[in-house]
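fold-stage: in
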Amino acid sequence: MPEAPTSSSASQRLRPVSGRHNPLLKDLRAVYAHGMLTEDGCYAIEGVRLMEEAIRSSVKFRAVFFSDAATGLAAASKDRLLQQIGHKVDTLLLPAKLFQETVTSESPQGVAALVYRKETSLGDALGAAQPPLLVVAAGLQDPGNLGTILRSAEAFGAGGVVLGEGTASVYNPKTVRATAGSIFRLPAIAAKLAEVIPQLRENGVRLFATSSHKGTPLDQARLAGPAAFFIGNEGAGLPRDLGPQMDEFVAIPQAKPVESLNAGIAASIILYEAARQRRSKPQAP
């Protein structure tokens, strides 16, 4: 049995890259600039914690990038990460300035990676929770809100998130960071809502939308059955054409001076209540 690589041998795998025209570096730069997938279906992650979450979730890596000025956690974790991702992954060492120009987050830790998207479908999301429980983002534009919703959806047992037209890209690096790793495990499906809604109804899923002050108070809504929660745009709310298609509007009780809740917070509260009701629902003998 071959011996595990030592720290020194792991570091020796790093390939120095000093030019901007390296193909892998171009792909990483494009993802940060546009928040979309590469041609071969990769998106970007950064920071030690997300790297470790990706490894724990058996995500397939395409390439890993280290800054030659990485300090603190990233530097201390470098050799361990290199050993865990395997020998077939490209590992590049970039000058600090080039890394910072490419990884344009506010406080990069000195390590980033391109990882392959996991293919999922609406059927996967419907089957992942029983009874089905989904969130549908309808024109949600803030990447942080979308990432929060994915994180809460996984935490409270939802089967997946559907990304309707006009919704931020789930592969935007800001969204990816905000998911705290849930993007690696939770189905997130971009789809046209006109096609999704009939499929939800065919599967007996009840359609709920949120309202600031009107609708069934959340603690009185029956959420233990098959459910899909539609979350609209942060400012404009749910698109007008979707309103008549909802089965029920749900309102989160709040103080009158408060106009509305942040979309990510509202979705999280509703998901928590749905999870609470499901735990409390009497089980069939």
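fold-stage: in (second)
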Amino acid sequence: MTKRVVVTGMGGVSPIGTAWTEVEQALRAGRSAVHTMPDWDKYEGLNTRLGARAVPFEVSERYSRKRTRSMGRVALMATWTADQALRDAGLSDDPILQSGRVGVAYGSSSGSPPALSSLIQMLLTNSTQSVTANSYVQMMPHTTGANVSVFFGICGRMIPTSSACTSGSLAIGMAYEAIQQGKQTIMLAGGAEELSVAQAAVFDVLYATSTRNDCPTSTPRPFDADRDGMVVGEGAATLVLEELEHARARGATIHAEIVGFGTNSDGRHFTQPSKETMAVAMRLALDGAGLTPDRIGYVNAHGTATGLGDIAESHATREIFGRSVPFSSLKSYFGHTLGACGSIEAWMTIEMMKAGWFAPTINLRSVDKECADLDYIIGDGRAAPVDFAMSNNFAFGGVNTSLIFRRGEAEG
């Protein structure tokens, strides 16, 4: 018998806020967090000068140098949001964390770029002077999950997910399946990414970044006819996933139930998205949830503001839902947070569903005629009571994910 899985804790840090009240205020105001990066001017050949840094967050005295020396910024954000999520779930001091019944599924598209650069510096200078004892643990792809596990003494399953832009959503899906199959009782799941000029350069050489350097808040423009590419952001979000009966037995607050998860791969091209397999991922999530498309009240789009990506995603969504489903992209506010976006967008989707209000895509003025005809949310957003919402993410390498959340306390 499969287990039902609920979300009992959430924590996040993003360019538009940490607490949901702060985030919601920014969303309702249509306030962009994109800004110019003057320190990038020195890089010859780099076209974009745009980024979105996460807002400052304060760590407590328990984050001593000894406990954080294994962390680059990406792991620190992962650990801090996991801390917030555990507090929200009422599990901060619960002995179950060290019982083996709790695991971690976490991802980022890479480890901490400064740590990686220390090893590159060694190759350039023929000297190990730049390398420290913690360089590797800060740069390894599973630095987020490993640091979360060590910081809280969690000794259950460790599921690292480093799958570019689906790192966070894939972690949530894999954690969901671990509990659903009875392998774990609780999982911390999420994704994190720290802003780096190197990540911006990766997309810049593919002509996939926005170059509206003189007007940063006017971009990115998902699905807009005048979009010119993505903006790189940073942040992290962690969800506490829990087996339903265990959550009920301890009187936990239930934010949402995860009812569907679909993932697959394009199997065609590393950087050119496939609308056919995107649609299959959505169908897999719907089939797993036992839902027909008309039951979904909102779709949180991947919506990167890239040329081919937006077109493929819009057509895949139209194929599954027709025009009826309200649809928006949160990346219009704070750019593409890469390995963190799946978890940040899941967190915000759940909160919007709880609030009964869904944010518009800002900067969307005129829908590209190449994009499918959908119910794009613009203007002041959309107030609506929604029982089921979907959040989709699609990554380089052809990795697709789709998550479906049910609002509030699960029935039955």
